[in-house]
Fold:
Amino acid sequence: MTKALFLDRDGTINVDYGYVYEPERFVFIDGVFDFCRMAQEKGYLIIVVTNQSGIERGYFTEADFAVVTKYMVDRFAAASVTITDVFHCPSLEGPDRKPEPGLFLKAQAKYDIDMALSVNIGDRDRDIEAGRRAGVGTNLLFEGEFRPLGQML
Structure:
């Protein structure tokens, strides 16, 4: 059975300064690499699910998002962590915008993920609600520290 660790991006992987789209402003949260490496060693696919309404709002472009995403994925790779995929919603509404479950369901279909065995971590209630609606077995509200979450995997 394929299981996944779903991670929100802003506020969970990186410090959320508001509409982060430039690599030089992308600051990783302490412990995220070690935590994800541990999850990967336990057989979890690492999948990022993120609202990115700054695109529709005109704050940055899909191309800007692609550049910062590549930076993020490359930094994880340098830390021996494979980001399996990144699913994002550039819209202000719709079935993919959290708290709707669309991003999770797309990942499930693409990778044949057993949602009941999977874990979702986000820093907002909408992240948790989206995971629940998608049938993710464990949904954890991130409160700034990865160490205690390691016991959940």
